[in-house]
Amino acid sequence: MNIPISENPRVVIVGGGFAGISLAKRLLKEKLQVILLDRNNYHTFQPLLYQVSTSGLEPDSIAYPLRKITRHSKDGYFRLAEVEKIIPEENLIKTSIGDLTYDYLVLATGSKTNFFGNESIEEHGMWMKTIPQALNIRSLILENLEQAVITEDPEKRKPLLNFVVAGAGPTGVELCGAIAEVRNHIVPRDFRDLDPTEIEIHLIEGLDRVLPPMSNKASREAHKFLEELGVKIHLNTMVQEYDGETVTTNNEELSFKTATFIWAAGVAGAPVEGLNASAVVEKAGRYKVNLFNQVEGYENIFAIGDIALMQTEDYPKGYPMVAQPAIQQGKNLARNIKRLLKKEKL
């Protein structure tokens, strides 16, 4: 891995998302050797992935080179690597480019798309957690519009112009809004031989309102905004299957013929192999952490961001898997690692 031995304690941060960057920026100023690992050499600003998928932004607008974070540090390093296993009894991690020891290990591996065991959706649907995936959605949308232009049969053209999104959380809501903007403004200008009124956008949600984690007021406003844009919203509806042509739901009378089905209905943590099973909440795939972000059962292993499940009275199921808690946890852990170095209480 070509990382020099240092007289400073070594902190290894796995993941260059909001949490990992928030922590790294603060620790790089201290007398520590900080090593940041990520499978990509750039940070993705995930809240704007939907803009990339609908051609509103180019990928470089939401990607930030991770090496820029460490380049001015005397004892800070970035390595492009994927962590494969943790061996906590040896303070060691195994990665795709070699082994690495640590004094403190911070897991900020984020989340991954959760299909809840539905293989048909995973095989035939689209989802959006990375820039390449957002570009795939962009390509599919444009390809289907182009194909619709040359398809004379209305029955064959309809699935090409039918866009179905499952999951009315922030990603699903923003994506539907952006696709509606494409229909309302881009199609009339760039696809003049298409009738925009043929394009339908459907948002499916299993619960009784859009944006379920947010306030009732936010839900009402979002619902109203989407309907004004022409999005058709289907609440209390669960997607059961997508075979590449038809989306079936728990409502026998409701199905959709579509060539564009986007799954935005769930995420789960992305844990690394090696820690005790008791440290991981299996269904959520997140590490149980205390108020100081220490992983349950370990003193020098921490988890922050989406991968961390910190249960409090206000958040018995853990904090929401969004950027703000991740950034705040990174800040707080930086303070606590400094306290550990001074042998002070957390």
Task: Write the SSE topology.
Layout: E1 10-14, H1 18-27, E2 33-38, E3 42-44, H2 49-53, E4 63-65, H3 67-70, E5 76-80, E6 83-87, E7 92-95, E8 98-101, E9 104-107, E10 111-113, H4 119-124, H5 131-149, H6 154-160, E11 162-166, H7 170-190, E12 200-204, H8 216-229, E13 232-234, E14 239-242, E15 246-249, E16 255-257, E17 260-263, E18 267-269, E19 280-281, E20 286-289, E21 301-303, E22 308-310, H9 323-341
Parallel strand pairs: 1-2, 1-9, 2-5, 9-21, 11-12, 11-17, 12-13, 20-22
Antiparallel strand pairs: 3-4, 6-7, 7-8, 10-18, 14-15, 15-16, 19-20
Helix pairs in contact: 1-9, 5-6, 7-8
Quick synopsis:
With 346 residues, the chain is of the alpha/beta class. The chain has nine helices and 22 strands.
Describe this entry's structure for a reader:
The protein is α/β, with parallel strands linked by helices and 346 residues long. It folds into two domains: 10-113 and 267-341, FAD/NAD(P)-binding domain, CATH 3.50.50.100; 119-263, FAD/NAD(P)-binding domain. The protein is built from nine helices and 22 strands. The strands form seven sheets. The chain has a five-stranded parallel sheet, with helices on one face. Strands 13-12-11-17 form a four-stranded parallel sheet. Helix 5 packs antiparallel against helix 6 (154-160) and helix 7 (170-190) runs parallel beside helix 8 (216-229). The two termini are 32 Å apart. The model has no long low-confidence stretch (mean pLDDT 96).
